[in-house]
Amino acid sequence: MVIKNYLCSKCGSLVEGKQMPPGMGCLTNGNFHRWRDIGEKGDKGFHCEGCSTVVHSKETPSMFGCPGEGFHNWKDLK
Ligand SMILES: [Zn+2]
Ligand SMILES: [Zn+2]
User: Fold this and answer.
1) Model pTM above 0.85
2) Three-class HEC string of the chain
3) CA–centroid distance, residue 1 to ligand 2 (Å)
4) Residue 6 CA, ligand 1 centroid: distance in Å
5) How remote is the CA of residue 14 from the centroid of ligand 1, in Å?
6) Do 38 and 55 form a contact (C-beta atoms < 8 A)?
7) Which of 8, 13, 54, 67 has its CA 20 to 30 A from that of 30?
8) 63 alpha carbon, closest ligand
9) Ligand nearest to the CA of 72
10) Could you tell me how far CA 60 lies from the centroid of its own chain?
11) How many other β-carbons are positioned within 10 Å of the β-carbon of residue 48?
């Protein structure tokens, strides 16, 4: 079973799951999350310099949908 990382490009919430999480509950304008599938969950740690999100992923997560800069700037977590 593939577990994916979903990140809201509006509020920066990170959720792991098999499918896209529900849209309700975003703290920003409109109250609906804008989820992005940023890739498969895994053992490698990454940290985005734009939005400070830390994610564990199989490969480098998708660069799209950073709430801070527009594009995530993933660095290996040390
Ligand atoms: Zn949100
Ligand atoms: Zn980011």
Assistant:
1) yes
2) CCCEEEEECCCCCEEEECCCCCCECCCCCCCECCEEEEEEEEEEEEEECCCCCEEEECCCCCCEEECCCEECCEEECC
3) 26
4) 10
5) 9
6) yes
7) 54
8) 2
9) 2
10) 11
11) 23
